[in-house]
Amino acid sequence: MELITGENDKDRRLDRILRKALPDYPLPLIHKLLRQKKVLVDGKPGKPDDRLSVGVKIIIQKEFAQSSNQRFGKNTKKEKEVNLSSLDILWESPDLLALNKPAGLAVHGTNSLDSIAQLYLANKLSASLSFKPGPLHRLDKPSSGIVVFSKSLEGARLFTSLMRERKIRKTYLALVEGKIDKEEIWQDELTRDKEKKKTFIAKKSGTGKNAITKITPLSFKDGYTLIKAEIETGRTHQIRAQAAAHGHPLVGDIKYGAKKIRNKEYEIRNEDKVDIFLHAWRLEFLDVKIEAPMPEGYKKAYV
What CATH homologous superfamily does 169-285 map to? Predict the structure, then answer.
């Protein structure tokens, strides 16, 4: 097998490049090939910690050698035809791409926003053995709004670093049950039940992860409040769990105790289910400010 390094492989270790380029092969086998000097880098046996430059030729002397296209993995699941016209691009730079995800579309997996983004980026990016563009943060399937994708290793590292340092400001729009008539700060400790895939308020102090959300009411109608929610922390289901715990579950969020929607005016339908009213509206970092337009379902019900 012959592989050639690209721009996004620059200065990466040989063993890490091979792990990404050969996803179907276990790490012990890769290390065995390196020990046995069956991996040549520009004609010389490679070492695990060798840091490679652009345009380096890697030859793997092994019978199992297959097409280098294997670096992108194999998807055995049947995917629906991907339609690029459904891609809503909000902002793009050489290193990052911000998309507007509709409610009901998963970020990852088969027939997802990632599937559409990969098709869009396929002919835009240079080949790489160890880097694959992809989403850099989460957004629940029933929710809508901004999702940022990496286009380069540099972009992925920058965005991840900013998230870790809490230098990315995220603001959501949500429709909740009941009336909120003043600004509130929700500060709770959250725990996650992985089996139930649900987040709860910790029963004892010190047993959960801190979660802080600033709530600003925008309007009130038909027993529902449209709020702006700014999160200082990024816990799984943070807004959903906190809203429920504070007596204002998101409209349509039955999983967290909301009532079934009876007024069709407030339904956002995606094939066979009703999605929740939670929209990743604004994202700010460095000198960048991105906004995703309010979904049509919100407009019909609230504007």
Answer: Pseudouridine synthase (3.30.2350.10)
pTM attached to this predicted model: 0.79
CATH 3.10.290.10 intervals, the chain: 2-71
Q: What is the pLDDT along the chain (303 residues), one digit of tens a residue?
A: 889 999 899 999 999 899 888 887 788 888 888 998 989 999 899 999 999 999 999 998 855 444 333 433 334 344 455 567 778 999 999 999 999 999 889 999 888 999 999 999 988 888 889 899 999 999 999 999 999 999 999 999 999 999 999 999 999 999 999 999 999 999 999 999 999 999 999 989 999 999 999 999 999 988 999 999 999 998 999 999 999 999 999 998 999 999 887 666 666 655 445 578 899 999 999 999 999 998 876 666 654
Taking alpha carbons only, the member of 7, 282, 240, 270 closest to residue 148 is 282
Per the annotation, the verdict on 140 as an active-site residue is yes
Q: Alpha-carbon torsion 8, 12, 13, 16, what sign?
A: negative
- Please tell us whether the domain made up of 2-71 is placed in CATH 3.10.290.10: yes
**Under CATH, what is the fold of the domain 84-164?**
Pseudouridine synthase (3.30.2350)
CATH 3.30.2350.10 in the chain is located at 84-164, 169-285
Which member of 140, 188, 253, 275 is catalytic?
Answer: 140
